[in-house]
Design goal:
247 residues; 6-stranded parallel beta sheet; 6 strands; B-phosphoglucomutase_hydrolase; EC 5.4.2.6
Length: 247
């Protein structure tokens, strides 16, 4: 292993955003809960079964494109809605309407609370770049660039593949490997020479499906064993552990 905790053949690092570089996974989970709880309360009354911001988030929406998250969670509650259109208003009772409501909530939370990158992640990415490796951010979020800018780390990423890229290029979202493969291609690096960094179980699945050289699971919520079961070569609680410095 090299001084940055990766096999010597790795030439590029592909980082998920929410939960790996920034703590915005918590913001997304809170927004999903608020949106789905409002929907379920309207549908079922005050006796509704709430969205679980840990279990439901991890199982059905974490790491997935927004509309896929809506569909997958609703399916878990034996519910289907019309697809609607991508520009549906946030009060529309459609897949895209619910997704747009969730996005509104996320943007408001980011505007009010701001975003800061994990210090250990910044140290690690800086070490990766100093070692001469290429870098990309791979996220299902259409707000990826706004978060990078708010956190002051946009300059650390050479390539960005995000929710907007998924839509424009017709990519399949995680757990399919398309987004990570696209980032590797944009960097001009073979997938076998790339390391994937993910906190979501569907991200682990994508890393394995794409036959990437190394997959790092980032455990922020106590799911280390699940990350390993889904294909992590190693699991850390903070990226700084890979270079042997405190987070």
């Amino acid at each position: 292993m090299t001084e940055i905790g990766l096999p010597s053949g790795v030439r590029a690092c592909l980082f998920d955003l929410d939960g790996v570089l920034t703590p915005t996974a918590l913001v997304h989970a809170a927004a999903w809960k608020e949106m789905f709880d409002d929907f379920l309360r309207q549908r079922d009354g005050d006796d509704f079964r709430p969205f679980d911001a840990t279990a439901d988030y991890d199982a059905y929406v974490d790491g997935r494109p927004r509309a896929d998250g809506v569909r997958t969670f609703l399916a878990s509650r034996d519910t289907q809605l019309p697809e609607g259109e991508e520009d549906d208003p946030p009060d529309a009772q459609t897949v895209h309407g619910l997704g747009n409501r969730k996005n509104e909530l996320v943007l408001e939370k980011i505007r009010v609370e701001g975003v800061q990158a994990y210090p250990g992640s910044v140290r690690y990415v800086e070490a990766v770049r100093a070692a001469g490796l290429r870098t990309a951010v791979v996220s299902s979020s259409a707000n990826c660039r706004d978060v990078l800018v708010s956190a002051g780390i946009e300059h650390l990423m050479e390539v960005r593949v995000d929710g907007t890229t998924i839509r424009e290029r017709g990519l399949r979202g995680k757990p399919k490997p398309d987004t990570f493969l696209e980032a590797a291609q944009d960097l001009g690096v073979d997938p076998a020479q790339c390391a994937v960094f993910e906190d979501a179980l569907v991200g682990m699945d994508a890393g394995r499906a794409g036959r990437f050289g190394y997959v790092v699971g980032v455990d922020r919520v106590g799911q280390a064993e699940e990350l390993r079961k889904h294909g992590a070569d190693t699991v850390v609680t903070d990226l700084a552990e890979l270079i042997g410095v405190p987070a």
